[in-house]
């Protein structure tokens, strides 16, 4: 079987009045870089690469660097292809755009490989420990035009938080870091009161703080029973991560901006995180995921993938989540304590909601793992044409 064709699509959906903010930036649109690989006997695989930056550079690497190596070549095991591509681009592409492009191609190749072998991807990367995954809602960003006038937004914030509990979520993630600690703590207090004591709360800073501010924030958050504190300091500051982690009893999460087994090795050796958050579309795809997960388990670090993109990214994350062993093993499973949870983005994103013919939806607080061969998804080509164009 040979690779016949590789197409890259850039999908964009402007959000208009629905735009929202993290501590770092506004989100005026959602976008995704989608890769479609077709074999000479008609199997089609889908992948997605990158989550935060502009999609064009990732598309350029797929089109101009990786595709020429694969087209008209015999299809190999995706791990072998990953190793060859990484070796070819190592001197200039150990992190960032190149790894995001490798991720997109790797996910599409595993989709094809699964269809060839008639097995869902999770069967091929370690087996299935669960058919459904507890979901946490990612929401409660800064919203509205007057984003800094936080006091006016508190009733709406409470309403939004409560809507997730009403929808069946038992875990909610909110944003901090755009305002002063005092102002953000008022938002945390508003949400904690809205969701009550029985819903777990995760707090994401998007690396808004230096170490002493992060330590101060963590101290304040300890009063609100916070389940994890995400990206307290910039991802490069591994010593800072360790200092914040040793200063608080709140577990520290991070890693959505980290790449490959080599990046995560350094995060683990540095004692930086309790929870590692590789994004499958960013950190190297399924092939690299297996190495990161193995490393994490040897360091006693829990892995909960970061998920942000279209329905393809969500499906990819669910396959790896199915394959994570309960950690540590007990005769029972408790979400996050020893059972993985899936990030279920609740911000507006038509690409997540419309791209798959059968969208992946919440059922009783859990999300089902696709069970069909490969990624187990069917992409709606009309939606590709509606929002996207070929690069
Ligand atoms: Ca995050």
UniProtKB/TrEMBL annotation:
A GO term for molecular function: hydro-lyase activity
Keyword set includes Calcium: no
Keyword annotations: Magnesium, Metal-binding
Cofactors demanded by this protein: Mg(2+)
Protein's GO biological process: amino acid catabolic process; carbohydrate catabolic process
Domain Mandelate racemase/muconate lactonizing enzyme C-terminal: 154-251
Protein name per UniProt: Mandelate racemase/muconate lactonizing enzyme family protein
